[in-house]
């Protein structure tokens, strides 16, 4: 995530275009290079039931250990063919420099973030991905990993749609107080009595992501 934060910081300073692509079922796109067999899922009857049969996979499947590697290498291959270099520091970052033009691709699971000062190259990259994957162009980067990203002339504003969460748990009218979180706290399940009204707490947890940005960690109230 440090890469994304740094990437956005540079994008602001250099006034880059930052676009986002969403890859539909990214993990289903890789072709399988090794023989992988599976049992037929219990809930579905195989077309022709022969006891003790396993099935050979022709395509990658969601949840398959090889799946994310397949997707990653397929993607890497397409990019390196186009002259992109994978960063030594973060392998999810690919970049290409031509004269003063800089284009880079950040890949997080099935989200792709494209950035740079050459819009033609960015559109070219989109075409490249369109041709091999089922892709949705999300346009300028607005939402990433549960973080809302708003760009204006003064910079990029990251927020964790906290207001939405507060509205969902009917906490919007509460008075805000500064509650610094004790980040060294050590919690155990035997530590104290179980929380008497866990539903509210569960709803809060469901709605708040474990933030990839450590400085946005939420301290959740327990005393409702
Ligand atoms: C990536 O996957 C797509 C769809 O399965 C396939 O058409 C394409 O040839 C693959 N590309 C590479 C470089 O493996
Ligand atoms: C650099 O980017 C600009 C803006 O898209 C483009 O007009 C120019 O041709 C690019 N230069 C090179 C060398 O690709
Ligand atoms: C940019 O957005 C931030 C956060 O929403 C806001 O505080 C600031 O006034 C905006 N600046 C401009 C120039 O619109």
Automatic annotation (TrEMBL):
Signal peptide: 1-15
Pfam family, one: RVT_2
Domain annotation Reverse transcriptase Ty1/copia-type: ranges: 4-181
Tagged with keyword Transmembrane: no
The keyword Signal belongs to this UniProt entry's keyword annotation: yes
Keywords from the UniProt entry: Signal
Official protein name in the record: Reverse transcriptase Ty1/copia-type domain-containing protein
Organism listed in the record: Linum trigynum
